[in-house]
């Protein structure tokens, strides 16, 4: 996040699909929490390996940064 802010300053809040203002840090927190819940949800029925949960988490993170 530090490098991203340094390369492209001004991560001003924006309104997404939920109509709440979020910053880059907010979207990072949402994507990290989502990844944790996705991995826990993956472990319950499937177990290891976690590659599928990691791929799903990456897609969710991209969607969060794009639309939230």
Largest sheet: 2 strands, antiparallel
- The average pLDDT score comes to 88
What global shape is seen?
elongated
Number of strands: 2
Beta fraction: 5-15%
Essential attributes:
63% helix, two-stranded antiparallel ribbon
3D structure, described in words:
With 68 residues, the protein is mainly alpha-helical. The chain has a domain at 23-68. It is built from three helices and two strands, in the order αββαα. It has helices at residues 2-7, 24-43, 51-67; strands spanning 14-15, 21-22. The chain has a two-stranded antiparallel sheet. A hairpin with a 5-residue loop joins β1 (14-15) and β2. It is elongated and about 40 Å long. The protein starts with a helix and ends with a helix. The relative contact order is 0.16. The mean pLDDT is 88.
Question: What's this entry about, in short?
Answer:
This protein is mostly helical and 68 residues long. The protein has helices at 2-7, 24-43, 51-67, and strands spanning 14-15, 21-22. The longest helix is centred in the middle third of the chain and has 20 residues, at 24-43.
Question: What is the topological layout?
Answer:
Layout: H1 2-7, E1 14-15, E2 21-22, H2 24-43, H3 51-67
Antiparallel strand pairs: 1-2
């Amino acid at each position: 996040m530090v490098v991203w802010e340094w390369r492209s300053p001004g991560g001003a809040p924006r309104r997404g699909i939920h109509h709440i203002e979020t910053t880059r840090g907010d979207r990072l927190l949402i994507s990290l929490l989502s990844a944790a819940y996705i991995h826990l949800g993956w472990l319950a029925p499937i177990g290891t390996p976690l590659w599928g949960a990691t791929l799903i988490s990456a897609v969710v993170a991209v969607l969060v940064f794009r639309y939230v």
